[in-house]
Amino acid sequence: xxxxxxxxxxxxxxxxxxxxxxxxxxxxxxxxxxxxxxxxxxxxxxxxxxxxxxxxxxxxxxxxxxxxxxxxxxxxxxxxxxxxxxxxxxxxxxxxxxxxxxxxxxxxxxxxxxxxxxxxxxxxxxxxxxxxxxxxxxxxxxxxxxxxxxxxxxxxxxxxxxxxxxxxxxxxxxxxxxxxxxxxxxxxxxxxxxxxxxxxxxxxxxxxxxxxxxxxxxxxxxxxxxxxxxxxxxxxxxxxxxxxxxxxxxxxxxxxxxxxxxxxxxxxxxxxxxxxxxxxxxxxxxxxxxxxxxxxxxxxxxxxxxxxxxxxxxxxxxxxxxxxxxxxxxxxxxxxxxxxxxxxxxxxxxxxxxxxxxxxxxxxxxxxxxxxxxxxxxxxxxxxxxxxxxxxxxxxxxxxxxxxxxxxxxxxxxxxxxxxxxxxxxxxxxxxxxxxxxx
Length: 439
Description:
Elements lengths: L3 H15 L16 E6 L5 H6 L2 E3 L10 H7 L2 H6 L8 E5 L2 H5 L3 E5 L2 E5 L1 E6 L4 E3 H5 L10 E5 L1 E3 L3 E6 L6 H4 L1 H9 L7 E3 L42 H12 L7 H5 L5 H14 L19 E2 L2 E2 L3 E3 L2 E3 L3 H4 L17 E2 L9 H6 L8 E5 L9 E4 L21 E2 L2 E2 L7 E5 L11 H7 L1
Antiparallel strand pairs: 1-6, 2-9, 3-8, 4-5, 6-10, 7-8, 10-11, 12-16, 13-18, 14-15, 17-18, 17-21, 19-20
């Protein structure tokens, strides 16, 4: 039976072994680190990373890929194999600083190595996926402790870095011991803090294993075995999009993380139609006639920063557009209201706009004078009023909200500012009304 004195001695020894240095932001759990590391060559200095907005996957913006490349680029397995570097949707990091150090520049002199370049210390969150836990026996390098990052790491998620040409000699003479200190969370001499680091990341840690992101070939027999059989989506891009949509936090995450994961064209159109029908509209999105009144199309107004994903707004200012208090959870709440707008000159049909992967719904930019968001937000909207002539002059404004039988529209967009002409200019299509009617 252990005595109280023995308990005290044991706890004292544990605390001593843990050291007195800086601890991890939150306690680590199995395969869910609070800190990950990334080594970079001297060719990419921190100022270059800041200019690029952080570390982002090469496949984040690449266009014109084949179906095979789209599948493989979203596959965790193919990313680890290393064949998808030009179009991968992942960024490599490790929970093991010694492994990350190998990706910095190295000069070998006899039995010792001298590193130069940079070692970045990064706060982990839901984007960091434990590779070993996700791929199981398909992962041939468990010693690497890789944490693959979905889409990228914004610069404000980087806690700081070591300039390896300016660190102590112990990094060369006692590399193993130094790496152990880093792994325990200690901050060593030479660490440069990132003044742009967002401390909200101190409350997060990695996601752990995510078998649904394995990205095996859809015909692979492993999909019929545990743990992968629990997930029905075998097409890697759709599984990755779903994961982003389920975990993106509009209060913290950068737009670049989720922009790629917008609903595909068919899904976006069905959402728009569902929203219209839920308000008593016909199949074209126009309200059913009421006592000879004009038919007014209702369309969700989406800001340049807040975006529509899965039927809800995401991004800074989204909670204001939804009429809610800021949501600090992983997903914003349901869509609260839509805005009624009169017909604006358009550059292309809604389907074409969405088909190009544009994150916004609609066309013309309207200034919303009484919606208070961070900075001056412009919004884009599209609407059709049957029988109403297109607005010819951008100087004309929508001074009053549209009125229906119930009276003035009661919404946060009660005052719509001047209509701003789209970049492509006024619509040149003369058959726009006919195409809308036929749709």
